[in-house]
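Exam revision sheet. Question 4 asks you to relate a sequence to its structure. Input first:
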Amino acid sequence: MTAPVRYTIQATQPAAHLFEVTLSLIRPDPAGQVFSLPAWIPGSYMIREFAKNIVSLSARAGGKAVPVTKRDKHSWQLPAGIEGPLTLTYTVYAWDLSVRTAHLDPTHGFFNGTSVFLCAHGHENAPQRVDIRPPEGLEDAGWRVATSLPEALGEKGAAERYGFGLYQAQNYDALIDHPVEMGNFALAEFDACGVPHAVAITGRHDCDMTRLVDDLKPVCEAQIRLFGEPAPMDRYVFLVMAVGDGYGGLEHRASTALLCSRADLPWAGMEAQSEGYRQFLGLCSHEYFHTWNVKRIKPAAFVPYDLTQENYTRLLWAFEGFTSYYDDLMLLRTGRITEKDYLALLGKTISQVHKGSGRHKQSVAESSFEAWTKYYRQDENSPNAIVSYYTKGALVALLLDLRLRAGSKGATSLDDLMRALWQRHGLSGAGVAEDGIFQLASEIGGAEVGRWLRELVEGTAELPLESGLARAGMALVWEASGEAPGMGVRTSADGDVLKLANVYDGGPAQAAGLSAGDVLVALDGLKLGAGNFDKLLARRIAGDSVEIHVFRRDELMRFDVELKAAPKDTARLSFTEDAPAPALALREGWLKG
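Answer key, structure tokens:
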């Protein structure tokens, strides 16, 4: 049996945001053991170079120090001939409050394995053991551990559930796919289709845990049943960090790391569902759906992951876009939101796609492939250059679902396609080919459906939303977001300083020569600030010319801008009152599942 790779991790200096990690190998590579840290984390498609946070690193073998050579930005090598046992000791700086890396202070600790666990090359498939130790100086603070990483039952020092101690993973890939939260967190547990689930919330909050569980449980059960019982995990954990202002999530094989505003959590006595809580439930639903779609059903380009460099695929429109389609739909099907809520959320997604001219220049297939350089590295021109594979991908899923249902009179749907992906790829581990979704759509709905889907995905034409929604007896109307004329810009405020964040293609501001980054100073001689720009525009009408003064760098500039009517780019959805019976039947099956 292969000897396990053993790690210990401890918050040795919480106030300095430092974890200390040791890695022990019984049999290092006699040709020269190599270690490396991933350059990116699955689910977040950007090279992040986590090794930059390693502050110090040293090695010892046989009671003596061993020289370590840095090979490149994320790997190290020991000389040949080193005999075990070998111990590598290093410190990691953890001060990124996000779901992607690691964060540590005297109030809590959080880490993804990709940020803290060096991979011992040649030992990737060996069992991995991790001793998570209490933080130094905070032994009496009452900290606990929340993670889906299994306890190393039967071994000396094995952790108890939510306790410090020894945990285990079957290999390195599994080790880095179970994030860990430690601290004083609120905890609630529930079963979904017989699988234990937990919610751990860190940070100051007054969450009504009972209400949250009552809402999460049916959503989890509905998703398990959509793909088919039993669920693919033995246990699942929602790790939530509540902050003043934040939003984000990252999927893992048996857990998700979530960041939310504390105001978005439900509180005791809350009557009507707040918009923020609805958004948080959608985030939970989204990340949970990834348990199947992308964690187990994967593009072939991700089987296996190469965490040293970009892994290119044109399929994120299906893995993120389809997940974005199902997240709110599952809330509706389980009664967590109303049909009115769902139409508003769907309308918001349609509006987001249509507000950027990038949809005419980049397909969702291209957006997927270029996620590494464009979607995850957006700049001031991004609305004019790219389209989101999340939002447009969700609309592609919607149209495909409605077409499959209409063509089969309700006998087949996107649900069937997802189940087929699970049976063929999720259970087997075989990756989905780049044209695999098109082929499966052809198999389920006919060759014409497959060709049509490819055109939607690889083209930049407007999506046939009006005709697609009409299949379900729905109407789409385009409205202006307000009555005031506009300049074709998006602004951002830093205190009372107002800047142009984006200048949209074809808009009045671009025609006049204004640029993103310009600091707005005055409109028709009146000082501009964060609180009065929209109010001043509201006093004008389309066709008026306004004098705009800005600072570009340290130069004062003047521009004449001719205002235009606000564009009709806001979608409003409604049910058609006189829809025919087939449309009503399709709608019923679609919305209720």
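Marking note for examiners. The chain has a mean pLDDT of 96.
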